[in-house]
């Protein structure tokens, strides 16, 4: 089995319902790399048939019956390179039939290099809320200054409402993986390689693009009756929780691009709106933890528990029919069936089928080459190569160095990651979840996430890192005006949503800080300031609310669900001297207590009175229960907020209110 099969880049088949159709209205915008590198990889003959593979793929996309017959399907395309002479291939808002007339414009702006931000600069706001921005590239900018330009454009396009879908196609040049992650909202892009190159030194990866475009068409399908309304109403919260399966569409809207496999730990699903989920695979020896593939003994997977009570328990693999996981001495170990056998979960043993290839494929899994063929003699692993310095914890893909998943190592002989029995590479690729990043002091109470909304900005600043964070924000109905986030009673379902907090671990000694003014509120009605229950699939584990019991008296309540399963709630009562003043609250989820302080803030930003929240005990060292959804401002399980919020900050390592105020 090759690396391309084992890694998370693998796509599974999607079965479409008979009544499947593209959900209207839908808008797709293409950005095509037109560098010399792309021209070479997309042309069977660079001189006689330039860009013919790309042209064929785009033509097949536009003439696909699901696209051609879709109601209110709009498409546009730009070509970009490293020059300032970018090309409109077919203008935004074109119908599929109109776009066919622009196919021959592909390649007319070819230049030696490609700077992705040049193409992104051409894109304006989407016409439709249901959209995809498909970036097709074979190279990248290659320099930090140009990556910074791409980051600026990615944040701009995200704030406009575009959903990126980046496809990298193998060429002869090194890929700028860092830039690909930037433009794809920090999600893994799709990688396409020429699996059967005529000349390994001249791959034609664009042969794979038609199949990838079909996957995209599948991702924007829905079934049953659809509407042709050109504008979508604000999303409303269901009155009762709905029963949903994998990749609930609400979760996808919430920025949750992946979901757990309810059966197996070494597989997971990539989510697309209104589509079947696509199964993906973790490298050998790793399990999906909700955000990444990590060493299997570091991931508490509910379908593969291993402790003193489950000794010798066996668990099935989601990707390999001839592998299993066995609990030995409190640690999970990968076990391989003998050659020619596959694992049966019911009997908890390996057996010999009549035809192992057919039997394995019937389960939707792979027959993994576990000591079956011996080492692969060729070192050509379709773009993958060992670390030039011999580091088994790293490997190269298209010349770019990558760290292996924790608990694995690179094995060139099988073109794959393999399990590292001694945890050789345990700490090489563990995601840092405490916001520290690569710079700034840890263990100091400071703001690692701050939004001021000044001048209508959605930017998020990290005091610790002394720079803005790459954070994508979704805003519905709420207005960014007067250096604040504005909510009013006429809005049906307003909120501002931070994807950044999706599935993020929030430990003890963290703090929330909000500055706001409640306006035109009903007496004794509880209004939501902050929560994380964007979807019915995301139970609320954080809630901050405010209630006006009179025109002057306000009750602010903060409630948390701990990972011990207990609810902790604290509150403060502030009697405002001037009903036009703002309030500011600090709530600290400490090591063994939850506490905080509320202030009244004058128009000239002077805090002239304060009251403390009740100090409430909790389990020492307990954390806030991890939630799939991120944090939303102005909406929760109570009443939508009315008024203005002009500051939101999140802090870490805060031992006291005093340490935060310093």
From TrEMBL:
**Keyword RNA-binding included in the entry's annotation:** no
Domain named Chitin-binding type-2 is located at 247-301, 303-362
Which keywords does UniProt give here?
Signal
Q: Which PROSITE patterns match?
A: CHIT_BIND_II (PS50940)
Question: One Pfam family, short name please?
Answer: CBM_14
**What SUPFAM superfamilies does the annotation carry?**
Invertebrate chitin-binding proteins, vWA-like
Matching SMART domains = ChtBD2, VWA
An example molecular function term from Gene Ontology annotations: chitin binding
Q: Name one GO cellular component term.
A: extracellular region
Q: Which InterPro entries match?
A: Chitin-bd_dom, Chitin-bd_dom_sf, VWF_A, vWFA_dom_sf
The signal peptide annotation in the UniProt record is 1-20
- The name of this protein is Chitin-binding type-2 domain-containing protein
């Amino acid at each position: 089995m090759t690396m391309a099969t084992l890694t998370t880049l693998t796509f599974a088949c999607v079965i479409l319902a008979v009544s499947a159709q593209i959900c209207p209205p839908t808008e797709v915008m293409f950005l095509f790399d037109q560098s010399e590198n792309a021209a070479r990889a997309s042309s069977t003959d660079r001189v006689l048939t330039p860009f013919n593979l790309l042209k064929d793929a785009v033509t097949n996309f536009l003439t696909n019956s699901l696209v051609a017959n879709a109601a209110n399907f709009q498409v546009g395309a730009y070509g970009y390179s490293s020059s300032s002479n970018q090309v409109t291939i077919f203008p935004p808002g074109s119908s599929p039939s109109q776009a066919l007339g622009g196919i021959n414009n592909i390649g007319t702006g070819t230049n030696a290099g490609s700077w992705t931000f040049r193409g992104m600069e051409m894109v304006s706001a989407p016409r439709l809320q249901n959209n995809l921005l498909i970036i097709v590239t074979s190279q990248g900018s290659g320099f930090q200054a140009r990556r910074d330009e791409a980051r600026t454009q990615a944040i701009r396009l995200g704030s406009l409402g575009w959903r990126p879908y980046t496809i990298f196609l193998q060429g002869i040049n090194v890929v700028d993986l860092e830039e690909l992650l930037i433009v794809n909202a920090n999600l893994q892009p799709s990688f396409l390689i020429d699996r059967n190159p005529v000349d390994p030194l001249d791959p034609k990866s664009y042969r794979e693009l038609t199949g990838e475009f079909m996957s995209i068409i599948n991702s924007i399908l829905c079934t049953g009756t659809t509407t042709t309304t050109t504008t979508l109403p604000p999303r409303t919260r269901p009155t009762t929780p709905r029963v949903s399966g994998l990749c609930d569409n609400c979760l996808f809207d919430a920025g949750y691009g992946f979901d757990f496999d309810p059966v197996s730990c070494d597989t997971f699903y990539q989510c697309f709106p209104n589509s079947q989920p696509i199964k993906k695979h973790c490298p050998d020896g790793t399990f999906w933890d909700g955000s990444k593939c990590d060493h299997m003994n570091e991931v508490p997977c509910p379908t593969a528990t291993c402790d003193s009570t489950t000794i010798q328990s066996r668990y099935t693999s989601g990707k390999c029919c001839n592998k299993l996981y066995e609990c030995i001495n409190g640690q999970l170990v990968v076990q391989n069936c003998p050659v020619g056998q596959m694992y049966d979960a019911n009997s908890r043993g390996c057996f010999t089928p009549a035809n192992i290839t057919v039997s394995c494929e019937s389960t939707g899994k792979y027959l993994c080459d576990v000591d079956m063929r011996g080492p692969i003699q060729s070192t050509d692993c379709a773009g993958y190569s060992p670390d030039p310095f011999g580091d088994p914890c790293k490997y190269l893909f298209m010349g770019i160095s990558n760290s292996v998943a924790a608990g694995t190592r690179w094995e060139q002989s099988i073109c794959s990651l393999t399990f590292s029995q001694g945890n050789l590479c345990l700490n090489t690729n563990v995601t840092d979840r405490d916001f520290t990043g690569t710079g700034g002091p840890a263990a100091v109470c400071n703001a690692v996430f701050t939004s001021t909304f000044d001048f209508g900005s959605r930017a998020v600043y990290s005091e610790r890192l002394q720079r803005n964070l790459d954070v994508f924000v979704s805003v519905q109905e709420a207005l960014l005006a007067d250096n604040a986030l504005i909510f009013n009673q006429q809005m049906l379902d307003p909120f501002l949503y931070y994807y950044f907090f999706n599935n993020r671990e929030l430990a003890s000694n963290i703090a929330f800080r909000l500055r706001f003014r409640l306006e035109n509120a009903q007496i004794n009605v509880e209004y939501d300031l902050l929560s994380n229950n964007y979807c019915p699939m995301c139970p609320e584990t954080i809630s901050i609310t405010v209630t006006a019991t009179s025109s002057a008296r306000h009750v602010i309540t903060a409630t948390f669900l701990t990972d011990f399963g207990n609810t902790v709630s604290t509150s403060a009562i502030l009697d405002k001297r001037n009903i036009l003043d703002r309030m500011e609250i600090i709530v600290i989820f400490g090591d063994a207590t939850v506490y905080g302080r509320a202030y009244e803030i004058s128009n000239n930003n002077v805090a002239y009175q304060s009251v403390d929240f009740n100090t409430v005990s909790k389990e020492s060292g307990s954390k806030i229960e991890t939630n799939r959804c991120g944090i939303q401002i102005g909406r929760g399980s109570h009443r939508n907020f009315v008024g203005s919020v002009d500051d939101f900050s999140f802090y870490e390592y805060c031992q006291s209110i005093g340490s935060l105020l310093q």
